[in-house]
Amino acid sequence: MAAITDEQVEAVRALVAAIPPGRVATYGDIADAAGLSSPRIVGWIMRTDSSDLPWHRVIRASGRPAPHLSTRQLERLRAEGVLADDGRVSLRDVRHTF
After folding, report:
1. CA angle, 54 as apex, 48 and 56 as ends, to 5°?
2. What is the CATH number of domain 6-94?
3. What percent of the chain has pLDDT over 70?
4. Ranges for the Methylated-DNA-[protein]-cysteine S-methyltransferase DNA binding domain (predicted)?
């Protein structure tokens, strides 16, 4: 992976912070909006620098949370009115557009 710049980190952080309660975005949505070449870059940034952000509003393109965060993430989303069916969030219904 190419070096990640401070500007890219700040762009991702700003986009995640902009996702309103009750909405979600995918890693790919954020990568596109930030002008990044891969959703994996967003995942790396989120893994290293997102504890103060609404990280639970970022999900995979399948509508499923990361397996290791699934229970916590779905609980937080449910508290905001985002419901999952069989562990999958309906992107059609709650996807945020940047």
Report:
1. 85
2. 1.10.10.10
3. 98
4. 10-82
Angle at CA of residue 41, ends 36 and 44, nearest 5°: 155
Neighbours of 70 (CB within 10 A): 13
Predicted model pTM? 0.94
What are the tens digits of pLDDT across the range 31-61?
A: 999 999 999 999 999 999 888 999 999 999 9
3-state secondary structure at position 89: strand
Confidence of residue 62 (pLDDT cuts 50, 70, 90): very high
